[in-house]
Specification:
Blueprint lengths: L1 H23 L5 H7 L10 H24 L2 H19 L4 H29 L2 H32 L2 H22 L14 H13 L1 H31 L6 H26 L1 H25 L6 H27 L6 H25 L6 H21 L4
Length: 394
């Protein structure tokens, strides 16, 4: 029994990590793609990162209700197949427009892994057992963003940027085969709910009309939007602006680990302060940190050093990491009676806000870190106002 359980955990971790891998492994390839596809505006290459989030925002709305209706495995087969098609389109692309179509489909397909995997875990485990499984999977989430750029760099050394998409296809096919031959369906027939667009519509209506859920969803979207802005411009800032070259992946990976550290800090502080208060403290701290760093930037006559910027990002990610889980949990708390649909709706809205905001932040990149730091300041300020003054505390 323990062997079966361990195999299930590994499979779920593998499926859920496919999203992070398909984002972060692409970062070392952006400059190669820009040159290969003759992208004129350097900032347009950021869309290779942000477009996958746009695809996810649409897919997240679909796969949750679909998996409640027809079982968990079929939507995963569908999503992974769409992910393969998107990867193939990107692999064969000869223009940025075709590349972005492929990335959109990748995000639309990969979103099934995020939604359905959690549903499968919820089917098999409850209470502390579910918490233990999710903690083990989160350990993978901490590691994948740290190693993915290095993996992408290694693939480029061996082959070319197209080879990364080939690896994505192979991994997705492996996921389909593992699902087919090693994993049973987890949702019993008597627990399935007929699919209807009206249930999705009602979920959207109730989520939007609930002030608490609406406020936390918007804040989560804004904060994650700042992070998407970082992901979109990280390669330009770290690899090109600071001349890190191939060592970019090491710095990116080290910074990603600070989010993992924040998960540990959050687990220690949440009982003492509560999710709402801890979120307010984290947002306020991020805002003050960004103010101080902006003042520092404008007070010196030379460009900021790599060391100061890395310290700023590392501290910022500690606060952002605390906010990721807490804001989502706070958003769904009032909607426990429709948790499945509500989770899809909240995740979809949050991702759509984040990709919209993050896309703008990335496009503002001007060869300095000012637009990114300014976005962290402004978005954290707006989020603080929404949570503190406009969102009910119960």
């Amino acid at each position: 029994m323990e062997k079966v359980e361990n195999r299930f955990i590994v499979l779920m971790a593998f499926l859920m990590s496919l999203i992070a891998l398909s984002i972060d492994a692409m970062l070392p390839a952006l400059n190669h793609i820009r040159e290969s596809l003759a992208v004129v505006n350097e900032n347009d290459i950021q869309l290779v990162i942000s477009t996958i989030f746009l695809g996810m925002s649409f897919g997240l709305m679909l796969y949750g209700p679909l998996s409640d209706s027809i079982g968990r495995k079929k939507p995963l087969y569908l999503g992974l197949s769409i992910f393969c098609v998107g990867s193939l389109i990107s692999l064969l692309s000869h223009s940025i427009e075709v590349m972005l179509l492929g990335r959109f489909l990748q995000g639309f397909g990969a979103s099934s892994c995020r939604v359905v995997s959690v549903a499968m875990i919820r089917d098999k485990f409850h209470g502390p057992a579910m918490g233990r499984v999710m903690s083990l999977i989160m350990m993978v989430f901490i590691v994948v963003p740290a190693v993915a750029p290095g993996l992408g760099q290694l693939i480029i050394y061996i082959g070319n940027w197209q080879s990364i998409f080939l690896v994505f296809i192979i991994l997705a096919i492996c996921g389909i085969l593992l699902l087919r031959y090693t994993q049973d369906e987890t949702l019993a027939l008597d627990k399935r709910i007929p699919f209807s667009f009206s249930s999705i519509g009602n979920g959207i209506k109730e989520t939007v009309s609930n002030g608490t859920s609406r406020g936390y969803t918007i804040c989560a979207g804004l904060i994650f939007g700042a992070f998407v802005g970082y992901l979109s411009s990280a390669q330009q800032i770290l690899q090109l602006q600071f001349n890190l070259g191939d060592s970019f992946s090491l710095y990116f990976g080290a910074l990603a680990l600070s989010i993992g550290v924040s998960s540990f800090i959050n687990s220690k502080l949440i009982a003492r302060f509560g999710m709402r208060n801890l979120s307010i403290i984290s947002i306020a701290s991020l805002n003050l940190l960004s103010i101080f760093y902006l003042v520092y930037i404008f007070s010196i006559s030379t460009p900021v050093t790599l060391l100061s910027f890395v310290i700023y990002l590392g501290l910022s990610f500690l606060f952002i990491g605390i906010l990721f889980g807490n804001l989502n949990t706070l958003a769904i708390a009032p909607l426990g009676h429709i948790a499945g649909v509500a989770n899809s709706v909240i995740s979809s809205f949050q991702t759509f806000i984040s990709v919209s905001v993050g896309g703008v932040v990335g496009q503002l990149y001007n060869g300095t870190v000012i637009p990114l730091v300014g976005a962290f300041f402004l978005l954290s300020l707006i989020s603080f106002i929404i949570i503190k003054f406009l969102t009910p505390s119960d």
